[in-house]
Amino acid sequence: MSRLQSQQKNEELASKLESLFHGNELSSPHSILCFIYWRYTKKIYRLSEDIISDVANTYVDNIPAQILKELPSWSIYVSAENLHTILPTSYPIHGFFFYPFLDNNGNIIRLFIIDDLKQSQGTTGLKEKDVDVVNNIIRIKDSREGLLDSRKMECIDGEVVVTVNEKLKDFRDREFNLLNAQISMVLYICSQINDIKEKNQFKRSEKHKKHVHTHHELPAQNIREWDVGIRMGQAIRQYRQAEPTGKERTTIGSKRPHIRRGHWHTYWTGSKKPELAHERKPRLIWLPPVPVNLEDVNKLPVVITPIDK
Length: 309
Prior knowledge:
Layout: H1 3-23, H2 29-39, E1 43-47, H3 52-56, E2 63-64, E3 76-79, H4 83-86, E4 93-102, E5 108-120, E6 123-134, E7 137-138, H5 140-147, E8 151-156, E9 159-164, H6 166-191, E10 196-199, E11 224-228, H7 230-242, E12 258-260, E13 263-269, E14 281-287, E15 290-292
Parallel strand pairs: 1-3, 1-11
Antiparallel strand pairs: 2-7, 3-4, 4-5, 5-6, 6-7, 8-9, 10-11, 12-15, 13-14
Helix pairs in contact: 5-6
Organism: Escherichia coli
Protein name: FinQ
Keywords: Plasmid
């Protein structure tokens, strides 16, 4: 795709998104605010195809909400065209907006996600959902319990019986899959500021950093696309290409060869002195899938995750 074609495509996307917000009578003040903030940068983030499946399937829970302050903008749009083919979701989406809501003290108290729905079974437009942040911690497990509560109590032959609506349970399970994947993708963007590269640059390359708004700032003129996780995705792709395909020998008492799933790891930086505890900051890293009990593991490409001290 040429630069001109890419620019025309982005202009059409920006126009479509703006019309969706203006035409959606159900848009809440938060969703409108989300779009207004996004217009200042008009940045779209796309995770590398080599990592999006692993990141989307990484379970999220008990993550410090402060990490979301590493977002490159106040409001971002994340592309998710093929997410419904990677894991079972309740509906397909083009992508989604993400906007963390702060209180007067600067604490994140709620996360807003606005789905850009694909045309499916007569459904199109925008769908808003939110996740509460309790004591500065993202507790997606609480959201899961709410989404998956498909039980009901019935009185059958004089006895109280708890039954499960399997169809409703399956739908809510898919709802949670999508919610978990979206938050995990946003966390990955926050944790990979040094592995974000602008696509189809029209001007001199610039270092990607968090966006700070000023009182006299005007909305961005053009959409700018950013690829996320290129280096990590390349390392994972090389590993998978080099992964042994034959049956592996196991020893008595050892686990069979397998790949440990990717997971989130939080560590804290700063002084450990009690009087300076308020200055400590959380840092989040995504640990990619790693081989366990595989032969020739030393021959596989090494993935190095830098940690700032």
